[in-house]
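Sequence, please.
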């Protein structure tokens, strides 16, 4: 099956019905993310316990790409150690900007790999990376 077709189906499905778009009861981390170039806005909510991201959800509005990317990211990081979540964010952003190309690293991204071809659509890159930068920022704030 054509990768672009898989990507299109995944984005459409996730944007129509983002199962992770809701308030997260008992969240321990909340971080807003905003893309001023197109108006996408998310608020990422995480429940972290003993260094593990037990749950993730978001609220907000935006284009299909930002909503799908955020929902898929929530699924991807759930159950991971905080450090693994940070590494996944780095790998996703690297996949989009072309600095991460190793198959082993990309494989760790799971369904989020469907966004790999977004790098060919420069106007949409910021939409796809918004949740991943927001995740990264969540833990950078904590490290301060």
């Amino acid at each position: 099956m054509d990768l672009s077709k898989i990507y299109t189906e995944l984005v459409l499905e996730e944007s129509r019905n983002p199962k992770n778009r809701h308030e997260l009861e008992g969240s321990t981390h909340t971080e807003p993310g905003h893309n001023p170039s197109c108006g996408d806005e998310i608020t990422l909510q995480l429940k972290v316990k003993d260094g593990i991201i037990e749950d993730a959800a978001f609220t907000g509005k935006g284009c299909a790409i930002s909503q799908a990317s955020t929902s898929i990211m929530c699924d991807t990081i759930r159950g991971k150690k905080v450090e693994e979540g940070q590494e996944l964010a780095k790998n996703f952003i690297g996949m989009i900007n072309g600095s991460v190309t190793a198959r082993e690293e990309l494989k760790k991204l799971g369904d989020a790999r469907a966004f790999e071809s977004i790098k060919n659509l420069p106007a949409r890159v910021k939409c796809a990376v918004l949740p991943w930068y927001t995740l990264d920022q969540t833990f950078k704030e904590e490290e301060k």
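The CA atoms of residues 12 and 36 lie 23 Å apart.
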